[in-house]
Automatic annotation (TrEMBL):
This is Glycoside hydrolase family 5 protein. It comes from Victivallis lenta. The keyword Protein transport does not apply. Residues 1-18 form the signal peptide. PANTHER family: ENDOGLUCANASE, PUTATIVE (AFU_ORTHOLOGUE AFUA_5G01830)-RELATED, GLUCAN ENDO-1,6-BETA-GLUCOSIDASE B.
Amino acid sequence: MRKLFFTFLLLFCALLHAVPADDGWLRKGEFCRLKGDLAAVEVPSGAEMEQNWLERELDLAPFRGKEVSFAVKCRWTGVSKPPEPWNGIKFMLRYQAVPNGTTYWPGGNGMYGDSDGWRWTGFTVKFPETVTAGTLSMGLQHSYGKVEFDLASLRIGTLFSPDDRINREWKVKYPEKIASLPRLRGVMSPHKITYEDLKTLHEWNVNLVRAQMSRNWGAVGTELDLEEWDGWLAGKLDNLEQAMDWGREFGIRFVIDLHCPPGGRNTPDNMRMFNEKKYGDHFIEVWKRISTRFKGHSQLYAYNLINEPVQSLPALPDYDYWNLQRRAAEAIREIDPDTPIMVESNRSDRPETFAYLSPLRMHNIIYKVHMYMPLSYTHQRLSGSGTAAAYPGIIEDAQWNRARIRRELEPVIDFQKRHDCKIYVGEFSAIAWAPGAEKYLEDCIETFEELGWDWTYHSFRESPVWNVEMEGDRIGNMRPAKTTPRQKVLRKYFKRNIIVK
């Protein structure tokens, strides 16, 4: 698959390349300085709660309707850990979808400590057709220490495009034992699966569990020690094998989900294995081990290669989010020719990214999507603050209802029609206290059912805020409940399952 470094938009390159000190950059705080192409922010201990960054206004109209990546090289020393993960080193855009509408703050934030030289940081945004302007910021927030940005490296443009798709005429075929399977409806697993968990799921008539091997979700700078990571993974696989053996009793199948890849993330919006060869190579080797161990197990349904890949920076050749999955799938097929393999799209497997996803030139591949749109509704007040949004209703300046959910999934529907492939919704949810959460879940499920897609709810006995056996109005106030409206919705559809032992 051909990957571009960036398709540069000349207007923005001219605007943002080598900006002189007095040409449009506004200093926020007394510890910012500009000299030629070098922007530096050095904040002493004790002054970290002040604003300390540089910013400038951008015309975003040329980017309407486009997925756009922002990237810059930076280096830092002695940066203190911020009290909130969205602060620390800040490379961020602030914009509104419509004037005076909802404000968004995407950004490559959260880094701290020492960088050991220049490193790329970046993020990706899908702009609405109505966007007009935004403000780009870089510096420090709620941290002390020193960070420098190379303005000559600043890039804004498209990293992936529908024009780059390959295998456009490919149609996926499935063996009869997969094509004829009854519909699969289930849940994401807890971090450690017990016999009692599976017994409860059997009582709910669940026939599929997506078994997550997860830790440090979304963190930057973890999973770097591969020997330690391998030891952790071995323990997770031991638990999974035991759970799959128990699953025979209950007729439950399993998707093996590598939720935490080797190398973790090097920015909040980019996985390290796309940029560092040893982690990408290890990713492929790990799937060789997993497929060797689990091939032929009666309860194995599929291998889920990467959970929610995120790539907003240029990758090494053949190490981008698509090619790493392709190479892992090819390695698995040398070992296990029969088990379905699940491929995900970019930007945490968002539906919109299926517009530029290419199919693998392989059969028995299932394409997987996650549905959390609109995120400001499904994840509202997860950090403990923010305003409540109700479903159905006006959310993020738009009317959200079942018709809008289906419209959000149109890129996936189109992908399925082009390639005759199976679609699986690996995750969808709404936080426990979201007004109308049960209606949102039902509208999602009704859409999946209409389209013939298998699905698993996120999640079962993992975080209390998603747990349908608990209720509450904030993170610190969750309590067990005999039943909840959300649980009733799920169990209503689980009754449709056929259990095959």
